[in-house]
Write a structure and sequence with these properties.
Elements: H1 3-21, E1 25-28, E2 31-33, H2 37-47, H3 49-66, H4 76-96, H5 103-130, H6 134-175
Helix pairs in contact: 1-2, 1-3, 2-3, 2-4, 2-6, 3-4, 4-5, 5-6
Length: 176
């Protein structure tokens, strides 16, 4: 991994930790509204699935020590959800054939990622923490996740478009 990639990944990890742990709103113990996944999605889109997965995993693990949100230990399902938030977006975009993703492709990508990560893994992880049935947690999380998918996509689209355009320009300039 190049030094510049590690530096950018570290910055995205730090931003994710701040957004998740200090700039999120807990509506209930199992519904958090925040923008912490945006830097993780962005890391995957810009640097590929493996760097994105690393950003997600490290942001969750390091962030846990800053604010546990009441959990005694890190939850492996919730940590895996963070890994998936970095791993899956570039893979879904590749399947959709979107090198420079449109808003629609990005919205579909974030929605599919959150079905797996947010509604699947995180909800299951919360069932192990709170000892509540999956069916009790899924309905309110479905509503909050739907709203966050749209908001996160609206925020992520202009940022990723600009950064991907700059990344392409930098690659072309450095190869000349």
């Amino acid at each position: 991994m190049r030094t510049s990639t590690m530096v950018h990944a570290s910055i995205l990890i730090a931003i994710s930790i701040v957004l998740t742990r200090f700039a999120s709103f807990m509506l209930t113990p199992y519904i958090r509204l925040g923008f912490g996944p945006i830097p993780i999605y962005l890391g995957g889109i810009l640097f590929g699935p493996w760097v994105g997965a690393m950003i997600g995993g490290l942001a969750d693990l390091i962030g846990f020590w800053f604010n546990t949100f009441g959990a005694a230990l890190p939850n492996p399902f919730i940590a895996l959800a963070s890994v998936c938030r970095g791993l899956l977006p570039p893979l879904f975009l590749k399947i959709l054939g979107a090198k420079q993703p449109s808003f629609k492709a990005l919205l579909i990508t974030i929605a599919l990622t959150e079905i797996v990560a947010g509604l699947g893994l995180t909800t299951y992880g919360l069932t192990t923490i709170y000892h509540l049935p999956f069916s009790v947690l899924i309905v309110p999380r479905l509503v909050s996740t739907s709203i966050l998918v749209l908001i996160n996509s609206l925020i992520l689209y202009p940022i990723s478009t600009k950064l991907l355009a700059n990344k392409v320009l930098h690659k072309e300039a450095s190869s000349n």
